[in-house]
Amino acid sequence: MTLLALALACARPSPTRPPDIAFDRDACAWCAMLVSDPRHAAAIVTTSGTTLPFDDPGCALHYLAEREPPVLQVWFHDADGWRTQDDVAFATGAITPMGSGLTAVPPGTPGAISVDEARRRVGAE
């Protein structure tokens, strides 16, 4: 019984476990391009445990605004790994796969903007 409970707990989606994206194989849930560059990747994990991969933070922000999925966690990849939507800011002006210009960075990075400001910039409010 204990092993079954442990197995079920491991199978459930977790807001603290970064998503698995198969780079160069998984397609962006918004624009359908392959997610190739981890520096610009994003992911939405739904309450049902589905991981929706994105090739650009702007694609994830558009998807959230347009489709309003039931969200467990939103993740953005920066130079060091995955950050949750509650622990991310964005540098602007980078060349990104779909042209949003957004790059995930740690909060407090000089010149970085908030998630809400990033949504406004890409028109995903």
Write structural notes for this entry.
With 125 residues, this protein is an alpha+beta fold. It has one domain (2-122). The protein contains 3 helices and 6 strands; from the N terminus they run αββαββββα. It has helices at 2-11, 57-67, 115-122; strands at 42-46, 51-54, 71-78, 81-84, 89-91, 103-105. The strands form 2 sheets. Strands 2-1-3-4 form a 4-stranded antiparallel sheet. Residues 4-8 have low confidence and may be disordered.
Outline the secondary-structure elements.
Elements: H1 2-11, E1 42-46, E2 51-54, H2 57-67, E3 71-78, E4 81-84, E5 89-91, E6 103-105, H3 115-122
Antiparallel strand pairs: 1-2, 1-3, 3-4, 5-6
What are the main properties of this structure?
125 residues; 23% helix; two-stranded antiparallel sheet; alpha+beta; 4-stranded antiparallel sheet
